[in-house]
Amino acid sequence: MRKKYTRILLLEDSLADAGFLREALGELEELRNGNTWLSPLEICDAETLEEATLLLKDISFDAILADLWVPDSSGIQTFQRLKAAAQNIPILVLMGGEDATLTVKLMQEGAQDVLVKHEVDCTPLGRAIRCAIERNRIATGLRRMSVRDEITGLLNFTGFVQMGEPYCRLLRRKGTSVPAASCAFFQLTNLHAVADLGGRQEEEWLLVELGEMMRAFSTEVDLMAYFGGGRFAILSPDRCGIVLHAALRRLADEIRMKAISRGMPVELQVQISAGELGEANGWQLDSLLDEVEEGLWENRPFEKTCETEAQAVLQ
Q1: CATH number, residue 257
Q2: 151 inside domain
Q3: Which end of the chain, C or N, has fewer beta carbons within 10 A?
């Protein structure tokens, strides 16, 4: 069954251009074959990047049409910031004229299409939106099938769960009374700022460097993963939560020093949380992940224990 609506976010500060694009989409719906391309449209307007970002937090969009020159941002940075906020939503860029260099750069950054405004007509626009949505759906499906993150080389979320769940079930059958394994998150909370101020190359350097450091940090029985959005995860059977938390804290200090020596234009901000597999979470990996997730944002007793007792445990 097809969706009832196709929701589109239109980022455009020119009322004339926004009206023209709305008219083109309206004509598409009136065509006899218009509904073969898109289901009925819901269009939300934003005149600034800030407005678009706020809408993306509250509404699930199918596609974004974006002019990159708006009052609070311009050029390639607008696309980068929008892409960071839009997660897996396809973005079609609207330009006032041909710019081959910028077009290539935008496609390399992940734009689904680049359209010249004065060349836009209803049927080609509808086709471009529909194709962008379908390409994005296929790409998302392929990413979910993969078990490795392309940038870091670590497991992705799918691979982490596929390998971690059987391990947790095995430990549950053993019925050990002590913490059987610990899990921790290492979260770069300002990864978006690194991309905004340093560019995509700085963001990728940071992720690649952390991937290598995580591999060096882990033992042969640890599961290491990158979930995206600056979040790394580790499932360790031979380190308790306190020791794991303390070791990741040292790793955070090390990556900060490397970033400073590289001249990165922003100070890295890191949050760390850990939890232990056992009766409290029913020996379930998903429950353990939820517990560790909560620990990133809440002042949990376990976090305080990690901070106060880590040195004593390591001695």
Answers
A1: 3.30.70.270
A2: no
A3: N
Q: Which residues of 16-29 are buried (b: 16+ CB within 10 A; e: fewer)?
A: ebbeebbebbeebe
- What's the whole-number mean pLDDT along residues 93-105? 88
Domain around 65 = 6-145
Tell me the per-residue pLDDT of 258-300, one tens digit each, with 9 for 90 and over.
999 999 989 999 999 999 988 888 888 999 999 999 888 654 4
Structure tokens given for 93:
């860029």
251 and 214 housed in the same domain: yes
d(CA 46, CA 42): 13
Dihedral angle computed from the Cα positions of residues 107, 109, 111 and 116, in that order, rounded to the nearest 10 degrees: -60
Same domain, 164 and 309: yes
The per-residue pLDDT of the chain, averaged, comes to 84
Q: CA–CA separation, 44 vs 67, rounded Å?
A: 14
Put simply, whether the predicted model's pTM sits higher than 0.85 gets the answer: no
Cβ atoms of 190 and 198 closer than 8 Å: no
Beta-carbon contacts of residue 178 (< 8 Å; ≥ 6 apart): none
Among candidate residues 100, 123, 145, the one where a domain is terminated: 145
CA-to-CA dists, residue 128 to 35, 37, 64, 92, 138, angstroms: 14, 9, 11, 8, 15
pLDDT at 67 over 60: yes
Token representation of residue 158: 């799918």
Q: Which two tokens stand for residue 73?
A: 């941002």
